[in-house]
Amino acid sequence: MLVCAGLAVALAFTSCKSSESAYRKAYDKAKAQEEANMANNNYEETPVVAPVQTRPSTETVVVDNVDNVSVRPEKLQVVDGAGLKSFSVVVGSFSVKANAVGLAQRLRNAGYPAQVAFNSSNNMYRVVATTFDDKASAVRSRNDFRAGEYADAWLLFNQQ
If exposure means fewest CB atoms within 10 Å of the residue's CB, which of 10, 51, 78, 79 is most exposed? Predict the structure, then answer.
């Protein structure tokens, strides 16, 4: 009887612990799904050309060469913020809304008009640090962010 009780206790302790392999399977499955989503959404960075502004020949304006800067076109819905203009600087992309909102709040605390927008085609939340009507201003802002803490900042063209 004592042997049976000991065997029952040993069996109870070994069946209660969590299995690392179960966690690993769940992680691997989520990682595979994320990679499949990224593979299905092949982004082609196509240049978006801003409209040409005509000015009198007496006025000289020096503008950075922004036509060669690539812009990723996406359709977004603003989740948290005032609204997007044509060109936006994205400093973070998250599949979890709370992470995107947290980064946006950190940017707002630093003085930026950050917003969170959702791309329903790939279920990603984009953290937009700044947004502009013209591409040249967006490029300058993106370059400022890249020079600082956000080296992976990129330009987005909102396809409303």
Answer: 51
Distance CA 71, CA 22 (A): 41
d(CA 93, CA 102): 12
**Reduced DSSP (H G I as helix, E B as strand, rest coil) percent helix, strand, coil of the chain, to 5:** 40, 20, 40
106 vs 122: CA distance, rounded Å: 24
Q: CA–CA separation, 94 vs 65, rounded Å?
A: 31
Question: How far is Cα 34 from Cα 122, in angstroms, rounded to an integer?
Answer: 10
Taking residues 132-140, report their average pLDDT: 93
- The DSSP letter of residue 21 is H
